[in-house]
Amino acid sequence: MLQTLRNAWKIEELRKKILFTLVIILLYRLGNAIPVPYVNVPALQYYFTQLQNTVLGLYNVMSGGAFSTATIFALSIQPYINASIIIQLLCIAIPALERLSKEEGEEGRKKIASITRYATVGIGLLMGFAYYMLMKNNGLLSPEVATSGAGAVAVAIVVILTFTSGSALIMWLGEQITEHGIGNGISIILFASIVSRFPNDIVTSIRNIMSGELSWWLALLVLLMLLAIIVLIVYVNDAERRLPVQYAKRVVGRKMYGGQSTFLPMKVNMSGVMPIIFAQSIASLPATIAALAGSKSDSWFMKLFDTTSIAYAIIYFLLILFFAYFYSTIQFNPIEVANNLKKNGGYIPGFRPGKPTSEFIQKVLNKITLFGAIYLGIIACVPILVAHFSNAKALTGISLGGTSIIIAVGVALETVRALEAQMMMRNYKGFLS
Question: Where is average pLDDT lowest: 40-49, 264-273, 381-390?
Fold first, then answer.
């Protein structure tokens, strides 16, 4: 693998893309260290120590710890994710947006992306306002601000606009990575946020073991479970169902074409980590609104949507199923595939070209999508159930472990695959070869 990395580094274009991606990640991490003015950061951090297993704790994990310190990137990519969910759902519900996204090609996709950007800024304003109200209601602003009524509106404007501009800047950084770097920019930023917390989590776990708060056998069990999850993710990520395809022989001029046997690959986990990312955003939305509106962490509503509660796990699992089918429908069109096979003289043995072929492909797609969705749901929900039925306080945050692991590993595999594809284009031996 080291030799492969060395070969990749020798390619000037890939070297520039890798360096560009690393620079953007560095800028993002620097932004995570710059606090917003007028915020009492020590008091805010202490407040978040009591919310590690709540929805706000989940937001803190996804932001790489920036949410608990109120930095300029505190909102992270959550506004963009929520905006993407809303716009993509509207593209199905509103015919005009559907035509714009499908019939107008690249120009239509650019318009959809522009609408998503405006929606991101709007959601960023709402989340920034809600976060400001949370800090104000809990006395987490600076003492001189909290005790003085003068300039309160100006302080609110500065804090809210800083949060909003930070979320917009993250969106722009992600787009730059997608265009000029390696992999999907938003996924890379989310990956950097999650991975940045791993060293701190490891140190915390070691301290808990040494202090006796966490049993060594329980820590070993959790470690083995996480390793098993990683192995399962890697295995299923490359799994695919191959449908046999036969091409009929045909004569064009003096040459004969076709007569070949090949296969149509259909990935088991076609949608990748996107169902997990979208599902956790929607599942946490009710409790997020309640928490940012000033609801107490010990209220019945907050306990119902706690990230270790059974109700949260059920909603989370059902949303993963929904978004898995939603994304497979967007990415794979059986009718279009069947028509392309028919135009090129191909057919699936045992099925007539046209509608029978598309119905068979749709049936197979439904089966593998169900398997992939259940696989994602189990990986995401098993740590939640472990945390729910465990009374060990030192396991605080384990309910977020499954989500974090599957996102981190999934994004890493997708990025490696993107780099592999570019290397194969240049006849280099790749990572997965």
Answer: 381-390
In degrees and rounded to multiples of 5, residue 414 shows phi and psi of -65, -40
CB atoms within 10 A of CB 248: 13
Question: 3-class SS at 1?
Answer: coil
Residues 21, 188 contacting (CB under 8 angstroms)? yes
Q: Tokens 């109120």 belong to which residue?
A: 70
Question: What burial letters (b/e) apply to 221-242, b meaning 16+ CB within 10 Å?
Answer: ebeebbeebeeebeebbeeeee
Backbone Cα Rg of the chain = 24
Q: How far is CA 133 from the centre of its chain?
A: 27
Task: Place 377 in a pLDDT band, splitting at 50, 70 and 90.
Answer: confident
| Band of residue 393 on the pLDDT scale cut at 50, 70, 90 | very low
pLDDT in tens, 67-113: 888 899 998 888 898 888 888 878 877 888 777 777 666 777 788 88
List all residues 6 or more positions away from 192 whose beta carbon is below 8 Å from its beta carbon: 25, 28, 29, 64
**For 270-305, what is each residue's pLDDT tens digit?**
777 778 877 877 877 777 677 666 666 666 766 777
Q: 362, 192, 368: which is closest to 271 by C-alpha?
A: 368
**Beta-carbon contacts of residue 199 (< 8 Å; ≥ 6 apart):** none
Q: What are the Cα distances from residue 359, in Å, to 67, 353, 369?
A: 47, 10, 15
Q: Output 407 or 159, whichever has higher pLDDT.
A: 159
**Distance of CA 234 to CAs 1, 191, 227, 270, 413, Å?**
17, 16, 11, 14, 8
CA–CA gap between residue 265 and residue 225 (Å, rounded): 30
Angle at 359 between CA 358 and CA 360, to 5 degrees: 90
Phi, psi of 186 (to 5 degrees): -65, -40
Token pair recorded at residue 133: 């109200």
Residue 203 to residues 65, 209, 309, 353, 386, Cα–Cα distance (Å): 15, 10, 26, 60, 21
Tokens of 90: 């509207």
User: pTM to 2 decimals?
Assistant: 0.76
